[in-house]
Amino acid sequence: ASPLVKRVSPQFFVQVAVPSPLRRTFDYLPLAEHPLPKPGCRVTVSFGRQELTGLVTGLSTETDVPAEKLRPLVAILDEEPLLDEHLLALYRWASNYYLFPLGMALQTALPKQLREGLTSTLATPMAWQLVRKNNTEHKVRSSQHQKILDLLASYQVLTAKELSVLLNKPARAALLSLQAKQLVEEVPLSSAAATTAQLATQPLTPDDEQAAALSTLRAAKPGFHCYLLEGITGSGKTEVYLQLIHDMLTKGKQVLVLVPEINLTPQTIERFSRRFNARIVAFHSGLTDKQRLQGWLEARDGSAHIVIGTRSAVFTPLAKLGLIVIDEEHDDSYKQQDGFRYSARDVAIYRANMLKIPVLLGSATPSLESLHSALSGRFQLLSLTKRAGNARLPTIRMLDLKMQKTQAGISELLLAEIAATLSKREQVLVFLNRRGFAPVLLCRDCGWIAHCDRCERSYTLHQQPAQLRCHHCDAQRPVPRHCPSCRSPALEAMGLGTERSTGYLTEQFPDFPVLRIDRDSTRAVGKLDTMMETIHSGIPCILVGTQMLAKGHHFPRVSLVAVLDADSGLFSADFRAQENLGQLLTQVAGRAGRSDIHGQVLVQTYYPNHPALQQLAAQGYGSFARQLLQERALGHLPPYVHFMLVRAEANQPQLPLDFLRELAEQLWQEAPRELKLFGPMPSPFLKKAGVFRAQLVLQAPKRSILQKLGASLLNLIETNSLNRKVRALVDVDPIDFS
Ligand code: ADP
Ligand code: ZN
Ligand code: ZN
């Protein structure tokens, strides 16, 4: 007998994305007696044996799950969606495009508390302002009180915390006593008297090129436009951003500003807050979880006007987003290199396209991808070819190392130039992209080299503290006194690192501060800020640093930039090496001569006649990059073709190759004609942290071809006969081929 079918009102199933590597959403029954949760709300669900926080992605009237397996939601955490439809759609697109499970993609960008299912109410941030009715100048006796009144007069509103920072001591007690005198009042920050349309400081008068760029930007009809602002270092790109941002603020729109990882410094944030009377939320690594959540919520409900952040800020919910700015758009840190391997630049462009708003990419050294888009008309190109104000581009000269003696990697000629610069009371920046003391520790008697077994690469010798450190897996061990192989004491540090050069320069110039700026020396909180203060005080000093120093910083007193070793990028097998070298050299060089004093750049090399160096020095990055683009076209390389990289890892060298061989064979059977496969081959970085690696590269002339293959690629990976022994991942638009 057939079961009795009772007609009920339509049954809805709740589709939930949970943090699971399974690439699908899961269906649940709604919670009895509760309204249906809206897409974008968080729910608690039972998943296997655990309870997880998931996100509702939709409702449906059908499900493949058999009735007896369907389970109801455990709880609904939000009444109103945490993420709006638009942001959900953005995540959905990114999850599809980067072949990464939606539930896990959502995880990576939500603040921790929200991931853990905590409530999401916005605390009302309070701030202080002057009492308006008091037009008369009020004299107060305490100098601290006077300082507070002065600060509030110039900043309009400040939180107690901001005031404490500005005063260098706690401000709350003083504020309370000023409040008692009815001189200041505490108000919710969002209702504070500050209006975003009002500027805190006046804009600079744009020069001709800035004015031209701005008028193009302002003339655009509403809608999606992607601009590439190609402006040499110090040409005033930031000024263009600031003026365009102001337009948006006066229209009541929010602005999202993306910056590279190491550029989100107090100086950057200060530059924005000095210009605008606006609520600025900055997402940087120094925030507590609570602060991060608060900023996220303020962005979401529209009370933050400007959001500045690194890569993951591209997923910040913004109720009234009107413009996205991507500074230093070429920077590698926009691409996440593990887990959810998205490019924040590309996600931002997609987001702007969905919202029909403009997106402005800026760089002195645009990526070849963006340059290609601009030259082919997909993006609109805006150029700034002159330095702003009185600053001039520095002259670049090659120092031929073949002709000279060096000590600690510094040639005699360079040493003399450093001395001359210091004696003019100007600053010197010495660039060396390798931290530690020396990259190799070698036994002079038997040739033994200290190396990390887990990576099969040499250990880097560090002096502070003294240890051997693997820069690939972070393994550490004490420095041996004798060669472990032949017992000889003749161990020698070979090659050059920032510690070594710093030590040598300190000996040579004992009267001047020598500041080392790299990941090691700036690890402690506040260390970088202190060094930046020294630099900005303008006293003559020497900065020795890695690429941390190369990007974005504005050092008006640096007039000599020295590149100790330009050669490592010249002969690399990576097809991006020349592009990266050009960007790095140009950016480092761009730190010189950024004010009235003329700058010079000295590049030490054994190959002063190398065409890449010659062209960079003589014609600049712009023409160098256009030349590289032609080579890429001839070589059928990105941006003229597109790549997807499958990397396989296992604890035996053969397994990843076998895995990929099987995958490649199966792929061939369904491959479209335009698809090319490279490999399987062992990765250039064969063994990393004890794991053997191999890779397979898929190439096609169009992204869509690779995208269509995505689903079956993932399927083949999951059903590979070695799937249990090999870990495989897919990197879409990879930039790391090591
Ligand atoms: P970029 O972002 O291109 O490196 P910045 O915007 O940092 O350049 O500008 C470099 C310097 O030039 C800054 O000190 C800035 O204040 C100054 N500057 C920018 N635009 C102008 C202008 N129109 N007039 C005078 N100075 C300017
Ligand atoms: Zn030895
Ligand atoms: Zn290692």
Keywords:
six-stranded parallel beta sheet; 20 helices; alpha/beta; globular; 31% helix; seven-stranded parallel beta sheet; single chain; 738 residues
Structure description:
There is one protein chain. With 738 residues, the chain is of the alpha/beta class. Helix content is 31%, strand content 23%. It contains 20 helices and 33 strands. Strands 10-11-9-12-13-8-14 form a seven-stranded parallel sheet, sandwiched between helices. A six-stranded parallel sheet has the order 15-29-28-18-27-26, sandwiched between helices. Helix 10 links the parallel strand 10 and strand 11 (306-309). The protein is globular, with a radius of gyration of 29 Å. It binds adenosine-5'-diphosphate and zinc ion (ZN) (2 copies).
Brief characterization of the structure:
The protein is of the alpha/beta class and 738 residues long. It is built from 20 helices and 33 strands. It is 31% helix and 23% strand.
